[in-house]
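Case study 2.
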Amino acid sequence: MSDKQSLEELTQKYLDQIASVAELAELERRLISNHESAAAFARASWFDTLIEFHFTDRQKAEDIEAIFAFGGAAAVVSPLSRSPVLGFLGNSARLTREYFSQPGPLSVLVAAIFMVCMISVLSILPAPTYTPTHIGSNNTTSGTTSSTGFQPVEEKGNLNLVARITGKHNCRWSADGRAPLSYDHLKIGRELKLDSGLLEITYYNGAKLVLEGPVEFTVEKPNACRLEVGKLAAKVSKRAVGFTVETPTTTIVDLGTEFGVEVEQGGTADVRVFKGVVNMTGQLGRSRRITAGQSARLNSSGRFVTPKQTKTQFVRNFPKPPEMVVVSFQQNVDSYAGTADAYLSETNPDFTYGSEVTVTIDGRDNSGNRVEGLLRFDIFGSGAGQVPLGSTIISATLTLTTDIDGNSRGDGAKFHRLLQSWNESSVTWNNSFGGNGIDTTEGNTEAISSCDLDTGYMVEGTHTFTMATTSLQAWSDGAANYGWAMLPPNGDDAWVIDSSEATMVARYTPKLTVMYIAPKPSQDFSDANP
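Prediction:
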């Protein structure tokens, strides 16, 4: 990769807020040591700011970026405050976006100040290679005005940015192609080779394309693309009328419409129009006007032939990005009543402790015997507020309260996923788990040997623990949910926590909080139109 390419990649990662600390440090080093690099960075930051205000469906892209960037913001923010170059050039552009997004004259004034700062820097750098023009103006350089109000100028070093990736779904890239960055801006001439999956591209003029792998695609012009092979569905806004799809054998020109194009190996092309009109011209000069509901097929020799009997299906509605959901479960809060807890006493092996207001865990009680706890949350299912089966568990926390009794602090417990069922109202030491305590040795049938949580020594008060998601994910994937065994170390200092029966102090009952992504519904994204 050349120095120019690596600088472009570092800059794009910075603008997309996905750069690592090491990448930010390398970018800063290059900007400080090289005037041309600083100029290129300033131009890219400036143009990215302009794109933000005019880009079609920008919010959709921002929502998807927020899901996949979850948890990474700290790595981006920290180095910026110490960077004289990134801190000024980059943050000036970002603050301009933020302030212009707020209502009121004061925000516009402050935004203008930041933009003046940015322009002041640009005045001592090589001039940007973009020429402003009013949106919709007929004053064009390359034939079509982009939705940003800026047009590529054919000069050396021009960025030629005309589109952006706005959605990805199960993308697998070809080995001989270069995979784009997340939600990358796309230059004229950029080739994309996708073996499988879906890719959504939005041109700055509003034309929106959905590519379905396997596909070979090239960004040709601000209002045109080339489809070498594969399938493409296009929705063209009024500002993008005239959008053109080139193929090896034909040229398809939009006249204000929604249409699909499929190119087979060898060049045979099928066009199907869902709304509006397109004009299809073959290499031999033959043209055909295709209207809504019609299809046309042009063979590799450039001749129109009878369309396929079975109409080609196109993906027209891009899958929605996954949404993270956070939900909490606590007995008698928001009508939830699915917590069960109890403890088993080796000293009193036939006694049931499922209705006590506390749960005791002890390695050696006054008789030198073990006391083991049980805890289960019924949270998976299709009911309101439940976690759907098949969800991806992102994180989980467990909140427990050491009882206010002065003798409740103790050695804590380890939480192991149970493999056998138990009933809160009848479970005892003798009638469950073999009558000799819960076995966690490798390969046993009572509990998993590894633990999801080790609390360590516990003092009074309410404590929230981050749990491993192993058990929760197993339950989401269909394993039976028998809850956790709360097993003590071999010490003799008992730990006593408030149970789900502690209804007089409901805020102290066990609480499980889960962050998850629901499973994607089984759906066919292909069109259903005739």
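The two ends are 48 Å apart (CA to CA).
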